[in-house]
Design goal:
The protein is mainly alpha-helical. The protein has one domain. α5 packs antiparallel against α6. The radius of gyration is 17 Å and the shape is globular.
Length: 200
């Protein structure tokens, strides 16, 4: 059982991102994201030890607003430091596509990612690390940022490495939907302020 879990961990979180990077295919990114999402979702449904009630806890709106401001300030300063010309480039250059992205991003990107990298990861692999939350969170940071090598730029890796422990904290201490909301807001801020080009 332990050896199969280790292989599964390696395959999902290390091999697949490396595989996608090798082929440099946008279609492959989302195809495998949804396939892994379906796999993890079905595994969780069949797992009698998984309490699905944990996914129904309410959103902490206060802490969500705080992290919204944190992400907004950080992203704004990041753009100013890197290239001020990027600021609001997406909505200015393609407003209709920006509106579509703002709407579909939480459903087609954030929820699958959070099921795979937070819900499934923390439940499935806690046995491998004796439930050590600190170690699991550090590994989660590594795997989540490593997954973004598929975009082949350091910005995606750096930004997700900073955000990953925040998402983990919100999932563990608050709720799944608080985590999803903050992740969604963070991504929408990134796309709006001009950093979205590093994430597709």
């Amino acid at each position: 059982m332990v050896s199969s879990l280790k292989f599964e961990l390696f395959f999902i979180y290390l091999f697949l991102p490396s595989f996608i990077l090798f082929f440099q295919s946008k279609i492959l990114i989302f195809t495998l994201l949804y396939l892994v999402f379906i796999f993890t979702f079905l595994k969780l449904r069949k797992d009698k030890g998984f309490e699905s009630k944990a996914l129904t806890k309410k959103i902490n709106w206060r802490i969500s607003f705080i992290y919204f401001l944190v992400f907004l300030i950080f992203s704004y300063l990041y753009v100013l430091f890197y290239d001020p010309n990027l600021l609001f480039s997406f909505p200015k250059n393609n407003f209709h596509l920006w509106v579509i992205v703002m709407f579909i991003y939480p459903f087609f990107s954030v929820i699958p990612q959070e099921i795979i990298y937070r819900v499934f990861f923390y439940h499935r692999y806690k046995k491998l690390f004796s439930g050590n939350l600190l170690l699991l969170t550090l590994l989660n940071l590594f795997f989540f940022s490593f997954a973004h090598i598929v975009f082949n730029n350091p910005h995606a890796i750096l930004i997700t490495a900073i955000a990953s422990p925040i998402f983990s904290y919100l999932y563990i201490k608050e709720s799944f939907f608080t985590c999803v909301l903050v992740h969604s807001l963070g991504g929408q801020i990134i796309f709006t302020l001009g950093l979205g080009r590093f994430f597709y």
